[in-house]
Design brief:
The complex is a heterodimer. Chain A is mainly alpha-helical. Chain A has a domain at about 1-100. Chain A is built from 8 helices and no strands. Helices cover about 80% and strands about 0% of the residues of chain B. Chain B contains 7 helices and no strands. In chain B, helix 1 packs across helix 2 and helix 2 (about 20-35) crosses helix 4 (about 60-100). The longest helix of chain B has about 45 residues, at about 60-100. Chain B is globular and about 50 Å long. Classes of the chains: A mainly alpha, B mainly alpha. At the A-B interface, helix 1, helix 2, helix 3, helix 4 and helix 5 of A face helix 1, helix 2, helix 3, helix 4 and helix 5 of B.
């Protein structure tokens, strides 16, 4: 067990490094990346756990990509895992910005850089759409009406009414508690 | 001493920035342009542009870049560590609680509410990423005239490829491919 724990540290570092390097256009982009790599390919976490980590990562201060990586690191190998995940997440910006800061105006105004970044944003849009369709599709498939309604409300509140995310999450916690205690009582 | 100050400043930013990297930017601005006069507002605008352009979490990028401009690599490391330190502490506490009480009624109840709400938030982030990519604006500022045809085509093609071609189902390969093909199209047809 101990040996396995050490063995996982390097892959953990490497995967969080990639995760961070491809976080383009905001923290939520890690969701499709985590789902594909950590859930489907490596089987490190279940999809439920991933959603739990994302929910909790949002509730904590700081960058979401860092927080989510820290949760995955802790799950895989405790504190050492967190250190590996943290290094993996902060190293790409450090390296990239280290190079760019030497000539950042040249970088920011370079037409090729601009064109490639725009192209990448279009790709990110497709990737995000895909992950949302899959997740909502799962609720529909399981006929999970309550989850569908909760997701729709959270979406509407944030996308159309600009409600604070922390407020939405707090309300969701309370509703979750009420719903699950109701279910239990009905079950008995 | 100056490095310690930098660490402490970004530690405070790290505590206060709820809701992701974009929430951190105004706080960093306040700290580095008015509370401390490390950068001018114009210089900070550069920080924002670069943080958004470069890959990586925006808050981390901004901390790294400010640190780098002030005291080089050492500054970048101090600012970044300061920014992530509060998150590390809070996440660790939550991770321990999660591991211990995941199966409990209360935690289970909280998570049944949080999971679907998170899906909603992810959907909202997706919408904003899509409208920014297609129209260069947030939802309520969309002008159909500004539709970026190249972005729309690249996105649709990327979506279909991701679904139909097994080898391209990984988000990273799709993002790289879009960067190359989309980038080429922008350079040929203009619009970048």
């Amino acid at each position: 067990m101990m040996k396995n724990k050490y063995k996982i540290l390097f892959p953990l570092f490497l995967e969080t490094f990639k995760l961070s390097a491809f976080t383009i256009g905001g923290g939520y982009v890690i969701v499709p990346l985590m789902k594909k790599k950590f859930v489907e390919k490596l089987n490190w976490i279940s999809e439920e756990e991933m959603l739990d980590f994302v929910s909790m990562a949002q509730s904590c201060p700081g960058a979401m990509a860092v927080n989510a990586s820290l949760f995955v690191g802790y799950k895989m190998a405790g504190f050492l895992g967190q250190i590996a995940a943290l290094l993996g997440t902060i190293l790409p910006p450090l390296l990239i910005l280290g190079v760019i800061s030497l000539a950042y105006t040249a970088f920011a105004e370079n037409p090729v850089v601009k064109a490639v970044l725009l192209g990448m944003s279009a790709g990110v849009a497709a990737v995000m759409l895909d992950v949302v369709v899959t997740m909502v599709g799962k609720f529909v498939k399981n006929k999970d009406v309550i989850s569908l309604i909760l997701a729709a409300c959270a979406f509407t509140a944030v996308a159309f009414f600009d409600v604070n995310i922390i407020f939405v999450l707090a309300v969701a916690c309370i509703l979750g508690l009420i719903i699950s205690s109701r279910k239990k009582r009905c079950g008995k | 001493m100056m490095l310690l100050n930098l660490f402490w400043t970004f530690f405070q930013v790290g505590i206060l920035s709820f809701g992701g990297g974009y929430a951190a930017l105004p706080i960093i601005c306040e700290k580095v342009t008015s509370e401390n006069t490390w950068l001018t507002v114009a210089q900070f605008t550069d920080v924002v542009t670069i943080s958004q352009m470069t890959p990586g979490p925006i808050g981390i990028n901004a901390a790294t870049f400010v640190g780098m401009r002030l005291y080089g690599v050492l500054g970048a490391i101090c600012a970044t560590l300061g920014f992530v330190a509060p998150a590390c502490i809070i996440v660790t506490i939550l991770a321990i609680i999660y591991k211990k009480y995941r199966k409990s009624d209360v935690m289970g109840g909280v998570l049944t509410g949080l999971r679907p709400a998170s899906v909603g938030l992810i959907a909202s982030a997706a919408l904003s990423i899509i409208t920014t990519a297609f129209f260069g604006a947030e939802l309520f500022e969309i002008n159909i005239k500004n539709t970026d045809i190249i972005a729309v085509c690249v996105s649709i093609a990327a979506y279909i490829l991701m679904k139909k071609v097994k080898k391209l189902s990984s988000p990273i390969s799709i993002i790289i491919l879009s960067g190359v093909v989309g980038g080429g199209l922008y350079l040929i047809f203009g619009g970048a």
